[in-house]
Amino acid sequence: MWSRLGTGNAGAGVAALGFALGGVVVDRGALAPLTAALDEVGAAGGRASALPSLLGLPAWAVVGLGLAGIGLALSRLPAIGPARGHWRWPVTGLALGLVGVLAWVGGSLSGWRWGLSITGPSRSLAEGLLLAGADLGGWGPAMLLGIPLGSWLSARLRGPVGWRAPAASELPRRFLGGLLMGAGGTIAAGCNIGNALTGLSVLSTQSLVAVVGMVAGTAAAIRALDGEDRRAA
Amino acid sequence: MHSAAREALAGRPGPSLAAYLVALAVQLALVNALGVLGVLRVQPPPLSVTAALLGGLVFGVGMILGKG
Is A204 in contact with B18 (Cβ distance < 8 A)? Predict the structure, then answer.
């Protein structure tokens, strides 16, 4: 979303705006009490929050199991050709993984204490711009603003970059989707990056549960919307 | 990530899912190694099952709607 904004995708920009605002609504806005209440329900003690202590296994064993599972999954994948005009997937994956590690190291140096993350920084950016007394600065929002800059640079190196806007009728849906992503990502304490990549890499139970929720939500929405799109066609 | 989820759910794993798995493996190995070496302080966040599950659900629906 933030990355496609950098390549001139105006629809992604609308979704990113919704994303940041959705986070503010449930963090500091009208729905903040709901977020606080949800945090209380099913809150578990320190031991359950880390997968190793929850499973009663040493951390290295859980890391090993995770790596073995990923290896098995990758070995069972059918042959995948290069995606149109993109890097081959092992390169993309390696690059994204290393960026994630760099984010951990770089963030740690500046007191961020978390890795790559999109939801929190988007919300902080909106809060810093909108609300008095909110802190704008910090490693997260600075990193976030680097994303569209980087994707713009990358796209610009390949040729001219211009704005592309989706049909006007698409915009409310994009904005609503962004709002839901921001609200959901804030309630779950992370989005597909913060939870599915950063959180899982530190063996967080919260992240694993959130990823299960995300996959379920994605599946339900695909089912509902694809049915609707077929009826409309 | 959106593409990876779509690939997985359609039963047609493709480049996005594979790239995500590689990225996760790289981070899993290196971040925990750096944690053991004492370079990073790795601490999982507090757990709230309901918030994680519900927030994840809402996020997933939003991702498909917003094409995020």
Answer: no
